[in-house]
Structure formats: C-alpha cells, structure tokens
Amino acid sequence: MSKRLLLSFAHPDDESFGMGGTIARYVNEGVEVSLICATDGDVGTIPEEMQGQFATIRELRLAELECASQKLGFSHVATFGYRDSGMMGSESNDDPNSLWYTWQHDPDRVVKQVVDVIRDLKPQVVVTFNQYGGYGHPDHIAIQQATEKAFTLAGDASYNDSDKPPYHPQKLYYTGLPALALRFMLMVMRLRGQDPRRMGVNKDLDFQAVIDNLEPIHARINVRDYMDAWEEANACHRSQGGGMNSRFPRWLQKLVTGNQGYTRVQPVPNGTRAIERDLFAGISIDS
Questions:
Q1: Angle at the Cα of 22 from the Cα atoms of 129 and 286, rounded to 5 degrees
Q2: pTM for the full model?
Q3: How many domains does the chain have?
C-alpha cells in the first residue's frame, strides 16, 4: 500500500502558495498527493498586462493550476467548479454559484463532495486551512469546515448521502503560518503608520486577526531541499503574484520558510510539546 495525502483548498494557487515545499518533498518521496480545489478562481483580480490572454479569468486561473499541478506532480486533482467569493461582506458572496453562498444555504452538498473524494482516493492524511481560513477568506473557511466534517463522515457507514464505501483517514492537519515572519511584518506596518486591520489592495484584509487566529504547531516539515520546485509552482500563478519569492535571496527563504508548520487536529494532540517531523508519523500504511 502507498502513502496517500489529500489537500483540500479553495482557490487555484492555495496549494502552491501555502504548502508547495511540503508537496514537492512528499511527491519526491513517492507519496500519492492529491488536491481538492473547490473554486475556479474566476473572481480573482488579474494584472492589466495579463488580461485578454484567455477568454475568461476562470480559464486563466485553471491553466495556472494545471501548470502548478504539473510542476508539483499531483496524482489527482478534483475541481468542484464553484464561483469564488470575495472577502466577508462582498457582493459576490451573494452569487448562488459561489462556494460561500452554497456553504451558507446547502452545506451538505459541499460536505458530500469532499466525502466522495476521500472515499475514492483513500488518503491516510488530510490537510486543509486553519479555522480562520488563513486570512479570513470565506471560501477558505467554507472548505475548511466542510473538510473537517467530511473527515469524520467519510468513515461513517451510516452516512447515506454518498454511495461510496466508507473510508476513514487517520490524520487531519491545518496548514500553519510562519508566526515570527508575520509578527515582524506587523511591526513594520505599525512603524510605517499603516493600519493592520485594513490591509491589501481593497483594504479588506485584517492582518492583526490573522495573527490573533494562529493555531499551535504540532508538525514541522523540512522543505529546504525543495525550494526550487516550490518556487516554480508559485511562479505558475503569475496572475496572483506568484514568483515574488524569487526577489529574496535563497538563504533568507530557507531561514523563514524552510520548515513548514502544521496543526494536528486528529488524532487530538495529547498535550506533549514534541514536534512531528513527518505528517505520516504513526499511521498504518495498510489502510
């Protein structure tokens, strides 16, 4: 039996920006790594010089996802096809085709889609966003909550919404964020007189809340030998700023992001301070 890892994210680019180094490492080690991408990214902002390259933003974002998938070596990519949402309070969140609207009005539909993927691919380990969705994006929160519910329901024989045989993955993690780097950025913002509660292009990103909602880290994966592959995958998402890491010297990249952190949700940590160095630590490969 092989090791199998499933990532459950919201947008094209979440996979590369968030944990590209970890993906590259595990694929290189022979792990079957698969991805859920819940939306098509069709509400994303595109630089003026890239407009017109594709008929729609959706086609551009999915092409970028395909590029990154090839670079990283996913075994399988499941796209749910939802329209993506804006930050909290955006008008686009009222679109019935958006992930956030669907999650608010028909959550069972989204949960079933994740359950079906889990039962089909049988991952021992599942990774999704933290409870705040990283930076509070509604789509991130929706797929995180759906994935956490699906993690349990996938192995429940009494769950009748899916006609696929039950399968229960063994471990669930949230992606972590580099706390030290974020706190340094917060300090710089304040020194510049910027309001950390109103950041981003549209001033709708609450950077202070990102830090306030950081979760404890239970696993750190060393990805220093996979920075090139990570950077190549990031660069595929050029419309969303991918490739910006190349502006920084490699020694600095390794120092700040050379170990990617994760919060273990299931099994619930027993309170010890020991840090795992492998997301597959303690799993049974035969199931």
A1: 90
A2: 0.94
A3: 2
State the DSSP string of 183-249: HHHHHHHHHTT--TTSBSTTS-B-HHHHHHT-----EEEE-GGGHHHHHHHHHHTGGGTTTGGGGS-
Is the same domain home to 99 and 187?
no
Distance CA 253, CA 246 (A): 9
Closest by alpha carbon to 278, among 88, 70, 84, 124?
A: 124
Residue 128: CB atoms within 10 A of its CB come to 28
Contact 174, 265 (CB under 8 A): yes
Is residue 201 one of the residues assigned to a domain? Answer: yes
In a domain, residue 89? The reply is: yes
Residues forming beta bridges with residue 220, ordered by sequence position: 261
> CA 233, 237, 242, 243 torsion: positive or negative?
positive
3-state secondary structure of 118: helix
Q: What is the pLDDT of residue 97?
A: 96
Query: What local confidence, expressed as pLDDT, does residue 246 receive?
Result: 60
pLDDT at 245: 57
Report helix angle 14-28 to 57-72, nearest 10.
Answer: 20
Strand partners, 21: none
- Tell me, yes or no, whether 262 lies in a domain: yes
- Which regions in the chain score pLDDT beneath 50? none
Q: Could you tell me how many residues make up the chain?
A: 287
